[in-house]
Design goal:
220 residues, 49% helix, 11 helices, alpha/beta, Rossmann fold
Amino acid sequence: MRFSGIIFDFDGVLIDSEYVGNSQIAAFLSSAGHPTTVEQSMAQFMGLADRDFHAAVERWIGGPLPDDFHAARAAEDARVMAEGIDEIRGAIGFVQSLPSPLPKAIASSSSTRWIARHLDHIGLRDIFGGRIFSGKEHVKRGKPAPDLYLHAAQAIGVPIEQCVILEDSPVGATGAVASGAHVIGLCAGMHCGADHAAVLRDIGVHAIAHDFDDVARLIA
């Protein structure tokens, strides 16, 4: 392949979690008196974590988080941790098709606990081993800063310029492009609307893939 290492975002790239999570956020905010569609939730919050996510919700609703916001989010997280979230179509086969010696890692805004649980669910945990990196745990500045990608590239021993990154969210793509890697914008999940590719192109991704067959062609 054209690259010496590959770095994956996780939510919306390997598992189809972005639509699931933003559906819950939209339903909760709407029930709390802040009408929000799933599409609006994805546009405002996708790819953000912790303080950045909470600040974005407060900006959207024009005030502090509702009292039961954290409890509702915790209940949703517990539900999906118990049930598991399925792959983005073709993700498992693509990862399994990569040469075993090829350095590979995950760089995600989610916690390593979340990532590991769902890697177990889709059967890819052994392929990544300990090369799972979280913007919450491994760097001071998470996405959209490039720090997490740079950390992952260093950890797998590949210069960032020789890595390809798969990203689906505008927040993640912004940091990936800033890192200096070759970035493929993946528009394969349920959360990717008709204009998603255009948004990622405007950020500066080098190519767009609509499925993992596209990814395979782009990195060959």
